[in-house]
Design goal:
Layout: E1 3-20, E2 25-38, E3 43-48, H1 59-73, H2 82-91, H3 97-114, H4 119-122, E4 129-131, E5 134-136, H5 141-153, E6 158-162, H6 167-180, E7 186-190, H7 197-209, E8 216-218, H8 226-233, E9 240-242, H9 249-258, E10 263-266, H10 268-271, H11 274-286, E11 291-293, H12 300-312, E12 317-320, E13 338-340, E14 343-345
Helix pairs in contact: 1-3, 2-3, 5-6, 6-7, 7-8, 9-11
């Protein structure tokens, strides 16, 4: 099962509404699809979403990185040389985590196809049904309440509320949204590095004093401010979720050992793919720390891959934030996964179950 070619394609799709955070606004999903072909006719598919403000990658840098890395692995066998392929992939070029993740997804797709197993089963998973939250973009209060109520009306029970552009306004947003929603709705708050440590404590203590207990507050301070994360964690009741602060196992280990966050957010595009994601989850298990599986606006291929990984380590990944497909204006038609708003069902097709058309 030797690799004979690696090429890329562009997956474009408009979003139902603009995706707005404290860091960026996105109106159209534009992802790189990796297509790896082997000498036996097998084809593996991967995907990555460039997020310049987080990983530093663009469509152009991803295409260049994938082209560059291809030279190290074309000609190798996906079955017999798998560990060597992964080693060359991750040592042949520094950083470029989304590009590496897209290649890894395609490689694991091929590896599970070689064993004629669904990818989740290849990884040792059994879970096939999942429930995701949905992101409520950062907007004026009335718009956010409207978006929240619409999400609840179509079945969402967990809402991820984007914040981070103004602490005082964010307090008003949270209170107004909480008051407008049924009491059984779970809120996840995400400031996307938009606050400092003092403002983070002020915001969270203020809403907690009003009886509002979110499931978590995600990455309230800058990615490199681990001291700030710990400062916040020690002063509020709401669990702190580290996101942009955790790209790899070394960073995860530092946060775990220093007790600087309650939860970790794992994203394939951040950590360079499936291999590192599983390492991070396994390390979190040793500390008794639960994780979230998040996404970077990937399309169906990337989200499907993340779900298969969740299935394999569902004892650690207890929170699913894989709503990107639900944000697309057109439902996916190139995969066997059933996406039904907050409910997602994996299929038993071998590999990822992708039928990519390009």
């Amino acid at each position: 099962m030797k690799i004979i070619s690696i090429r890329t394609a562009l997956f474009r799709s408009p979003l139902k509404t603009p995706f707005k955070t404290a860091l960026r606004t996105v109106e159209n999903l534009e992802d790189i699809v990796v297509i790896i072909e082997c000498n036996d006719g097998s084809i593996g598919y991967g995907e990555g979403s460039p997020t310049a403000v987080i990983t530093g990658e663009t469509l152009g840098t991803m295409e260049a990185a994938i082209s560059y890395l291809s030279q190290f692995i074309i000609g190798l066998d996906v079955v017999t040389d798998f560990e060597e392929i992964l080693h060359k992939l991750h040592t042949g070029l520094l950083h470029n985590t989304t590009a590496k993740s897209a290649i890894e997804i395609a490689l694991y797709d091929l590896r599970s196809k070689a064993q004629k197993k669904p990818f989740y089963e290849f990884l040792g998973g059994t879970q096939k049904k999942f429930e995701t939250d949905i992101t409520i973009s950062l907007n004026d209060i009335d718009t956010m309440i409207k978006d929240c109520l619409k999400a609840v009306s179509i079945g969402y029970k967990i809402l991820k509320i984007k914040l981070g552009n103004n602490p005082s306004k964010d307090i008003d947003r949270i209170i107004a949204i909480n008051d407008a929603l049924p009491k059984d709705i779970i809120l996840r708050l995400d400031a996307n590095q938009g606050w400092n440590k003092e403002d983070s404590v002020l915001v969270m203590q203020t809403i907690e004093s009003k009886g509002i207990m979110a499931q978590c507050i995600e990455q309230p301070v800058k990615a490199d401010d681990i001291t700030g994360l710990k400062y916040i964690k020690e002063r509020i009741l709401t669990p702190v979720l580290a996101d942009e602060a955790v790209f790899n196992l070394a960073q995860a280990n530092f946060i775990l050992e220093s007790n600087s966050a309650d939860y970790l957010n794992i994203k394939l595009s951040k950590c360079g793919g499936i291999t590192e994601a599983i390492k991070i989850a396994n390390r979190a298990r040793e500390f008794g720390v639960s994780c979230m599986m998040g996404c970077m606006l990937e399309g169906p291929i990337g989200i499907t891959a993340a779900l298969h990984v969740v299935s394999a380590i569902s004892d650690v990944i207890t929170m699913v934030d894989l709503d990107a497909v639900a944000l697309l204006s057109t439902p996916p038609h190139n995969c066997s996964v059933i996406f039904d708003e907050n409910k997602i069902l994996l299929s038993d097709e071998i590999g990822l179950g992708i039928k990519y058309e390009n």
